[in-house]
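From the methods appendix. Each design record in this collection lists the tokenized structure first, followed by the designed amino acid sequence. Records were kept in a plain field format so they could be parsed without special tools. The example shown here is representative of the layout used throughout.

RECORD:
FOLD TOKENS (63 positions):
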């Protein structure tokens, strides 16, 4: 079972990702961000999401 800290990190990792996505969309609407910037946001967001999923698994160590 995941520890309380792992659940907390997982929950806030997802929440942070969603907030980041919303802010990115808002920036697009307000500033008319270019396609290059949008792709960079998507890539960085994906990397963050992967890190959020992988890190608890590695730090947990199956213990």
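DESIGN:
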């Amino acid at each position: 079972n995941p520890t309380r800290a792992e659940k907390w990190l997982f929950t806030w990792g997802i929440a942070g990702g969603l907030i980041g996505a919303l802010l990115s969309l808002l920036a697009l609407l307000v500033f008319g961000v270019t396609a290059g910037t949008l792709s960079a946001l998507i890539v960085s967001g994906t990397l963050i999401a992967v890190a959020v999923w992988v890190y608890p698994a590695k730090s947990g160590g199956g213990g």
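APPENDIX NOTE: The chain has two helices and no strands.
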